[in-house]
Amino acid sequence: MSGVAITGAAGYVGSAIARCFRAHGWQVLELGRRGPHRYELGGEAKVDWTGIDALVHCAWDFRLTRWEEIERVNVRGSIRLMEAARQAGVGRGVFISSLSCFEGCRSLYGKGKLAVEKEALRMGFAVVRPGLVYGERPGGMMGALEKAAKASPVVPLIGDGSYPQYPVHEEDLAELIVALCQRTAPVEPVSAASGEAIPFRELLRRIAARHGRKPVFVPVPWRLILAGLRAMEALGLNPPFRSDSLTGFVFQNPQPNFEAAHKIASFRPFA
Question: What span, in angstroms and rounded, lies between the C-alpha atoms of 94 and 115?
Answer without folding.
Answer: 15
